Amino acid sequence: MARATLRAVRRCPVMPEADFTLQYLAIERRLFTQTSAWVEFRRMTLVSPLWLGEEGALSDVVLSTRVRIARNLLDLPFPHSATPEQLRSSRAIVTERLCDRFGPLKETPLEATSLDERADFVGARIAGTAFWHPLPERSILTSADLSLAGLANEEDHLRLQKAFRGWSAQRAISHWEHLSERIGTDWAHSRKLGYLTASPINLGGGARLGLMAHLPGLHRSGGSSRWIQALQTLGATARGLYGEGSATVQGFVQISALSGRSELSETVAQIRAIVDSIALAEREARQTIASSDIKGELEEALVVAVHSETLSLGACLKLIGACRMASMREIVPAYYGEFDRLLFELPAYPPPEPAHAGAVRKSRIVSRLRAMQLVG
Questions:
Q1: Model pLDDT for residues 29-39, shown as the tens digit of each residue
Q2: Most distant CA atoms of the chain, gap in Å
Q3: What are the residues whose beta carbons fall under 8 Å from the beta carbon of 363, sequence distance 6 or more?
């Protein structure tokens, strides 16, 4: 088995670091040619999702949509009960399959990463909080623009996701169909239960739809709870930005829906009308917020950002939320999508945070604000 594993790793066309960097910079130049402001800021950022530079329907309300698929290998135990040798084998097989079926990808072995790198992967929603720790025989595989990401040996042998900007039911279904077709059917499957997963919650279709939304209008008016309850009746859940157990802050929320035994396309069709209604209700609720209130909140958040030695994650979310609203009201000239990208580039550290976490956030935030000429 060990020899087979080594051969699998060598055969897999993992993208060399130099090639990955060149492809990444080419995408960045194409998406952000309108400004050079990102150049200085990107040097400080280890993970920068370039797909956020795309256009997206309803992106003022829904920042991003993710389609995720969980799969496990035949004849190998789930990662939580596997031996080191079995983990090594499953990582090699998953890496080879992804590279063969989706083209060259960059592989980042988790055990070789620093805490700051892992915090960036979690903050960018590429990896979950289970990857906060440098567990052995785990890998993160990413495309150059980071829209496609695969996790080897997280909770399941494979977690594969495709992210895109904004919300489109048809686009979500298209991406799910594409991933399902390309990943193939040679995974652990039961005729009775469907695809087998480490958690019974994901059993069946092994697919999940995730939306990140910003609902400051409904959050202020108290109307968000009604819509969240409507989603819950369809089996969807609402959580904080960093998954289970994280709080909803400043109206930022993640909406998640599992496919269960059905096709993900059926799940998307079920929640489509509610998501569209939430976007309409949020836009109406925002109009009731006085511009003077938005301006006051923005000025307060900017003062905190500039004059504090460190910034908490909550303070950053408050600032980004205020900047988004100010951009939409044309109080600041910057496009709100630039703040969306900044949100994804905030590192998310495990508790208790390291001493330097607040300083890292402060440096990144203020550097970006200065590049946008929002602060001196």
A1: 454 444 444 34
A2: 67
A3: 44
